[in-house]
Amino acid sequence: MAVDPTDYPEHRLGLQRDDGFLEVRFERHDRTRLAHLAHHSPCRMLFPRQEPDEPLLGVLLTTSGGMIGGDVLRISVEAGPGATATVTSQAAEKIYRSLGAPGRLAIDLRVGEGAALEWLPRETILFDNARLERRVELDVAPGGSLLALDLIVFGRLARGERFTSGALHDVWRVRRGGRLAWADALSLSGDIAAQIADPAGFGGATAAGVALLVADDAAAWVDEARARLARAPCRAGVTLVGGVLVARALGAEPAHVERALTDLVSWLRAARSGHPARMPRFWSI
């Protein structure tokens, strides 16, 4: 049975919650330029000086510092035909504990014909008793490419806290030219500690991540990607589904998961696009 949103403590107590959005569109003329930007607090995007060997860079931030129960955020990024851009985030996205209501995050990424978009945000940290409903929609036109990275950390580990209660509902849909190519969904609720500890689940991992390459030539990179992840200091693997390269990693140390997938992404962006074999500079801050 669906829960009436007015039954959540956040609503009954009259607590202020965010309802924000960000819309950005890149277009190519003589070079890639920002063609459209609209936002509502707490969502913002900054555009630091472009480095000579890097694509145009957009840096996403939330002025609230994270999401809490009852927040609603919508992010839409589009790379028009022939445009080349990278989007990252200023810092890790923190999902704070909830009184009962979920935070809702919708991400919509669209890539036009001959365009190349990199979606490389920092990790998402789930505090204990956080509740997050996230839906990620990706649509890549023929001849376009999308390189995407997503990392999730189960708890504030430096504080000795694990994500043992709350809820995570995470849905991904990847379309190529409007046709569904890959779909994925994850739901954690109830006894989350047992689900994460289960060998048939996360095997005790404290972090998990996925890297996606949606491109016409994705199949050409699978073998080398597998060889590289075979040397990773955590559990990792690569598959090809519907023309989408899907790389996953999980492990007991978030740093190992991050290193496995960021090394892979750095190699892919250099090998495919001639960009430097590194992550955007905000990853080093």
Give your account of this protein's structure:
This protein has a domain at 17-203. Helices cover 13% and strands 45% of the residues. The protein has helices at 9-12, 192-197, 222-229, 254-273, and strands at 19-28, 32-40, 43-46, 56-62, 72-79, 84-89, 93-95, 103-111, 116-120, 124-126, 131-140, 145-154, 167-176, 179-189, 207-214, 235-241, 244-251. A hairpin with a 2-residue loop joins strand 16 (235-241) and strand 17 (244-251). The radius of gyration is 19 Å and the shape is globular.
Features:
single chain; about 280 residues; mainly beta; about 45% strand; chaperone; UreD; nickel cation binding
Q: Kindly state the mean pLDDT as a whole number?
A: 93
What fraction of the residues are assigned to beta strands by DSSP?
35-45%
The computed structural class is: mainly beta
**What is the CA-atom radius of gyration, in angstroms?**
19 Å
Low-confidence regions: none
Note the main sheet: 10 strands, mixed
Give the overall shape, derived from the CA principal axes: globular
What order do the helices and strands follow?
HEEEEEEEEEEEEEEHEHEEH
Distance between the termini: 45 Å
Extended strand count: 17
Number of helices: 4
Helix content: 10-25%
Condensed summary:
The protein has 285 residues and is mainly β.
SSE blueprint and pairings:
Elements: H1 9-12, E1 19-28, E2 32-40, E3 43-46, E4 56-62, E5 72-79, E6 84-89, E7 93-95, E8 103-111, E9 116-120, E10 124-126, E11 131-140, E12 145-154, E13 167-176, E14 179-189, H2 192-197, E15 207-214, H3 222-229, E16 235-241, E17 244-251, H4 254-273
Parallel strand pairs: 1-5, 4-6, 5-8, 6-9, 7-10, 8-11, 9-12, 10-12, 11-13
Antiparallel strand pairs: 1-2, 3-4, 12-15, 13-14, 15-17, 16-17
